[in-house]
Specification:
alpha/beta, 5-stranded parallel sheet, binds iron/sulfur cluster, 6 helices, two-stranded antiparallel sheet
């Protein structure tokens, strides 16, 4: 059997979707017989590799850094998956969307600062005007909703994709019938 290359990516999310991935527990050992985790916050590789078979994308696209990253990932990935509600709808990160970027920075770094108020001018990513769901930036092949998706749903989706099938997720998520 040809081993598949799996990547997991952390954009603007809380890492809860990755925690749910780790909740696969012993099923991770079973999956490790069929795939290699080639890029992830959980491994050391800092460069997104070529020819990735499946990429699970957690989080919204909120910064220029996210935007550049997801465009590169799309070019180098066969099946790109919006993984969790922040990727699917922008969810929690989009709560800033009614406000300007400047007013968000003022709130975070001046109005509520208890020490040295002032917006940092380095080491923070340049925010986009809006936090965006992944599909508004690049084509998405599969959506796994949930905040976070359950480990059972993640396992089902991965095993179906590993078998070359399109996962039928509508009856397995809260959006299903
Ligand atoms: S979907 Fe929920 S668990 Fe996943 S990154 Fe967003 S807030 Fe966190």
């Amino acid at each position: 059997m040809i081993r598949k290359k799996l990547a997991t990516v952390w954009l603007d999310g809380c890492s809860g979707c990755h925690m749910s991935f780790l909740d696969l527990d012993e099923r991770l050992i079973e999956l490790s017989a069929k795939l290699d985790l080639v890029y992830s916050p959980l491994v050391d590789n800092k460069e997104f590799p070529n020819d990735v078979d499946i990429a699970l994308i957690e989080g919204a696209v909120s910064s220029e850094e996210d935007l550049n990253k997801i465009r590169k990932i799309r070019r180098q990935t066969k099946i790109l998956v919006s993984f969790g509600d922040c990727a699917v709808t922008a969810n929690v990160p989009s709560m800033r969307n009614p406000f300007t970027v400047q007013s968000v920075f003022d709130r975070a770094y001046r109005e509520t600062a208890t020490r040295e108020p002032g917006t940092p001018n380095q080491l923070i990513p340049r925010l986009l005007e809006y936090a965006l769901p992944v599909h508004e930036v690049v084509p998405v092949d599969l959506y796994i909703p949930g905040c976070p998706p359950s480990a059972d749903v993640i396992y089902y989706a991965l095993t179906e994709m590993l078998e070359g099938r399109q996962p039928a997720l509508s009856s397995r998520t809260r959006f299903g019938a």
